Amino acid sequence: MAGKYAPFENYLRDLPESQREVKLRFEQIERILNDKLPSSAYEDQRWWEKEKEGNHISARAWSNAGWKVGSLNVKEKWVKLVRAG
User: Fold this and answer.
1) 66 lies in which domain range?
2) Is 21 in contact with 82 (CB distance < 8 Å)?
3) How far apart are the first and last CA of the chain?
4) Would residue 43 count as lying in a domain?
5) What is the tens place of the pLDDT at every residue in 58-71?
6) 30, 49, 56, 75 — which has fewest CB within 10 A?
């Protein structure tokens, strides 16, 4: 995957197979990306829950790496991803 979210996808792919979940603060994701998340990521949980088809490249980054959103707290600015399947 090319583009802004490629570093995040690579980060998730590089986690040990035995690791079933990862909880990240939004700032941690921004450090991985070396870029800011869009304001909608901070304001609306739907940004995190969008399907992987179409223009939602952010969701594709974790979905392509084999992860899905397990839980999310936009107010506290963290997301927990769990291995899909």
Assistant:
1) 6-83
2) yes
3) 21
4) yes
5) 777 898 899 999 99
6) 75
Q: What CA–CA distances, in Å, run from 56 to 5, 15, 19, 48, 83?
A: 11, 23, 25, 9, 19
Q: Does any domain span residue 1?
A: no
Q: Encoding tokens for residue 73? A: 């707290």
- How many domains is the chain partitioned into structurally? 1
Asked whether residue 31 is assigned to any structural domain, the reply reads yes
User: Does 36 reside within a domain?
Assistant: yes
Burial category of 43 from C-beta neighbours within 10 Å (exposed 0-12, middle 13-18, buried 19 and up): exposed
Are 68 and 14 a contacting pair, CB within 8 Å? no
The per-residue DSSP string of 25-71 comes to: EHHHHHHHHTSPPPHHHHH-THHHH--SSTT-HHHHHHHHTTEEEEE
